[in-house]
Amino acid sequence: MELPPLPFTVTDWSQVPPTHHTGETGTAEWRSFTLGTIRIRQVTYSPGYLADHWCDRGHILYVVSGELETELKDGRKFLLTPGMSYQVSDFGDAAHRSATKTGAVLFIVD
Known about the structure:
The protein is mostly beta strands. It is built from no helices and ten strands. The chain has strands at about 20, 25-35, 40-45, 50, 60-65, 70, 75-80, 85-90, 95-100, 105-110. The model has no long low-confidence stretch (mean pLDDT about 95).
């Protein structure tokens, strides 16, 4: 990842308009912006959320609150709690998808 030239920037996430995405179950609210080819997001998953797809995109994901279960298409599962993160490159491992029983707030760079 290479950050494009930009001035020092402060983001008030409460002022970034949300978009809503329906999962297989539950919903996701994204507040996002793009810098060149890099997308930066604050994502809130509702309790009971399950992604409706397997993802091959690379991410740096940090759990701000709640619990996130990340399942890899090969069957591995990882439970992430506040203060934990994962990093995966584009097509870097088995495709992955997110789920949460309790809800979660994430910070994601991809």
